[in-house]
Amino acid sequence: RHAQCFHEFAEFLIALQSRTDVVCPDFEWADTFAFRALEALPSSEVADYPKLLTSTTSSIRTQIAAELESLGEVKHLTILSPFFDPDAKAVQQLATETKVSEVRIALPPGSEESAFPFPKTKKWPLKVSAVTLRGEADNRRLHAKWMEWKSTAGTLTLTGSVNATA
Questions:
Q1: Edge-first strand listing for the sheet containing 102-107
Q2: pTM for the full predicted model
Q3: How far is residue 51 CA from its own chain's centroid?
Q4: Which residues contact 147 (CB under 8 A, 6 or more apart)?
Q5: 60 phi and psi angles, rounded to 5 deg
Q6: Per the count of CB atoms within 10 A, which of 18, 90, 123, 155 is most buried?
Q7: Is the pLDDT of residue 134 over 90?
Q8: What per-residue confidence (pLDDT) applies to 150?
Q9: Where are the beta strands (DSSP E) in the chain?
């Protein structure tokens, strides 16, 4: 439906092959998938489409900050992640770079526990709080990663494998 997503996927596969820190004895599969993805016909899509963000050429944090520039004033950032840095430095950097004044750390349904080091944030120049997610509690370990920026012009959501760590 969104041909641009397929083109971004092809760019990722091509960029992956140029990284010296990625070891793969045979990248033929990547070439095959990149070629197939590039066959998706470009269209006159609007700017709002799901975007594939990868850290092959620049940080996710930098890309998110660029995306947020068109969304007006950011009200708050909500983060759900199973992992955080011991000093929460990555969250602080993300909040600073994306110009938020409030960070909300989501707690899994039915839990009041988080790996987030709340005491380390007391001297931060922004508000940090815990929020409880609605949903049915289960006994599974948290694996989901979700970051959501609410702004005056909309919501930007990042989901996938990006933890709230450096």
A1: 127-132, 102-107, 74-80, 146-151, 154-159
A2: 0.78
A3: 11
A4: 64, 77, 78, 79, 80, 81, 94, 157, 158, 159, 162, 164
A5: -60, -40
A6: 90
A7: no
A8: 93
A9: 74-80, 102-107, 127-132, 146-151, 154-159
pLDDT above 90 coverage of the chain, percent:
31
Q: Where does residue 28 rank: exposed (0-12), middle (13-18), buried (19+ CB within 10 A)?
A: exposed
Q: What is the dihedral of CA 63, 68, 74, 77, to 10 degrees?
A: -40
Q: Which residue has the tokens 């370990």?
A: 141
C-alpha 67: how far from chain center: 12
pLDDT tens column, 90-101: 999 999 989 999
The answer to whether residues 50 and 5 touch, using CB atoms and an 8 Å cutoff, is yes
Lookup: tokens for 9:
């996927």
Residue-level length of the chain: 166
What are the tokens at 93?
């950097």
Name the least confident of 13-22, 45-54, 145-154. 45-54
Longest Cα–Cα distance of the chain, Å, equals 52
46 pLDDT more than 60: no
| pLDDT-derived band at 56, boundaries 50, 70, 90 | confident
pLDDT attached to residue 149:
93
